[in-house]
């Protein structure tokens, strides 16, 4: 059975991310593993009490989180209605990044999904610190990041941003295969720059993409270079109504620029769409 991991803080955005993942990938039999870390709460509370009471504090944090976690899953089941998927909740005092990577390895997680920001994030910030750090901390697993959504929209138009420096076998990546086949999605391959600027190696990589994706509905686009790569992608996503953007999760990836640059506000916050970050194996 395929397993999808949902790190959560029980926020509304976390619920949105959970719902989106269940709608996109829950058509088949899937186990959703929801994980919550109470490490920060434990650190704050146990520092204020004597050693004898620390164990009691930790037990209470665990018990309370189990109740909230089960309630979180019950609400999602009611929202989803009939489903073939199963759900499991894990509460841990381990740090969330360590817990996620441990579960990815032990449970053979196919995909990790989380919201853009949690309960404590500033409303004017598009991506919270935990999600931003997860993009660099996660190991060997695709990461789907979902913004707050008022209603579910199927990923019918999917973009993949590339500089054609490296070939990535998109058809062999389960999350991409599933969402494109399930929704008959159009795949837009996006390169920021003029076609004439491509080197011989980049042209070979582009040909490799074309040959590997010839059975899908694929379009290649060369985007006009604006002030930055992220501005070019943001403008295209907004004007062409992309439903999801795929990026390769390099150490210094486009994703981080997309949310740190003020350009997002200039092209409009409506371009907030889910992002799928692919790991480099």
Automatic annotation (TrEMBL):
Residues 1-147 form the UspA domain. It comes from the Bacteria. InterPro entries: UspA. PANTHER family: STRESS RESPONSE PROTEIN NHAX, UNIVERSAL STRESS PROTEIN UP12. Belongs to the universal stress protein A family. This is Universal stress protein. It comes from Halomarinibacterium sedimenti.
């Amino acid at each position: 059975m395929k397993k999808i991991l949902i790190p959560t803080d029980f926020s509304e955005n976390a619920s949105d991310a959970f719902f989106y993942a269940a709608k996109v990938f829950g058509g088949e039999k899937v186990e959703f593993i929801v994980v919550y870390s109470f490490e920060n709460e434990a650190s704050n509370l146990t520092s204020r009490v004597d050693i004898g009471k620390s164990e009691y504090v930790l037990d209470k944090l665990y018990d309370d989180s189990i109740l909230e976690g089960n309630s979180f899953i019950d609400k999602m089941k009611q929202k989803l209605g009939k489903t073939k998927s199963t759900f499991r909740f894990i509460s841990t005092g381990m740090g969330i990044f360590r817990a996620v990577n441990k579960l990815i390895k032990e449970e053979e997680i196919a995909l990790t999904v989380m919201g853009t920001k949690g309960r404590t994030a500033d409303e004017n910030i598009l991506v919270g610190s935990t999600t931003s750090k997860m993009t660099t901390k996660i190991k060997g697993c695709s990461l789907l990041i979902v913004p707050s959504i008022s209603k579910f929209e199927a990923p019918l138009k999917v973009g993949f941003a590339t500089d054609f420096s490296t070939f990535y076998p998109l058809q062999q990546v389960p999350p991409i295969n599933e969402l494109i086949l399930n929704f008959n999605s159009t795949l837009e391959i996006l390169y920021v720059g003029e076609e004439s600027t491509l080197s011989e190696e980049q042209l070979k990589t582009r040909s490799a993409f074309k040959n590997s994706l010839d059975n899908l509905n694929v379009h290649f686009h060369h985007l006009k270079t604006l002030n930055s790569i992220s501005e070019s992608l943001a403008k295209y996503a907004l004007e062409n109504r992309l439903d999801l953007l795929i990026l390769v999760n390099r150490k210094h990836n486009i994703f981080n620029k997309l949310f740190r640059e003020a350009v997002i506000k200039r092209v409009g916050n409506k371009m907030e769409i889910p992002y799928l970050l692919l790991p480099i194996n």
